[in-house]
């Protein structure tokens, strides 16, 4: 055995450690919970494979009255956070959060499992998520491989959402859909919770996870530098911020840039006083966590009312 195999070559505190032999030790987002019927909400979930070779998959959520509904339900495509390098849809906090959203909003949810850096460097997470969206879009005519999406999801009323790095990915998916088209999927709104976007400061984590990073003009990280930013084809965007979040100013800058870009949509911002990054995932029962979920749901329901009349 190589005596230097336990030598640490790179470490990002609270996220992961890289050893000389190539092993990755993660410190966060390791706990998982299986799908099934949630005893509190009666939401049913299951995992489906998008690409068996890469492991890209979705955790699907079906609200309790989906089977008895007289019409198909809106679809929320959710993208988890974790600095592009930790966490998964299967973590208990995300599973609990999306059970609550599915039940209260009465929507079908597809939560994307993409590959993590550094083993799979950026931009792989973007390509994986786009593949999952395209796979989901294939169900619009009711002839896709997944019965839940065929029978219960209305791909004419679709929302994108994500938190932290997942919010970054969500925005990038909206921009890719703007450029390439969403197929038979119609994007009606996007919710960005405590989004991660680049600013003028050097970000060593991004530089490590993203070998082809283009610096402060890279449109995947510094999204407002995208020359097509104002062409975003999404009619409404909701941005959540928190006063004590280390990413707060970046989310606020995104909001201002989008509002003033000439974009032909409506952007709203909700700022929670005294709260930190993704506080709603850590303590979902506190008053402001409940308020965040309520606002998230009302945003989707308002668009559904507008679309369905």
Automatic annotation (TrEMBL):
Belongs to the 'GDXG' lipolytic enzyme family. Residues 76-280 form the Alpha/beta hydrolase fold-3 domain. The active site is at 164. PANTHER family: ALPHA_BETA HYDROLASE FOLD PROTEIN, ARYLACETAMIDE DEACETYLASE. This is 2-hydroxyisoflavanone dehydratase-like. It comes from Abrus precatorius. PROSITE patterns: LIPASE_GDXG_SER. It holds the Pfam family Abhydrolase_3. SUPFAM superfamilies: alpha/beta-Hydrolases. GO terms for molecular function: hydrolase activity.
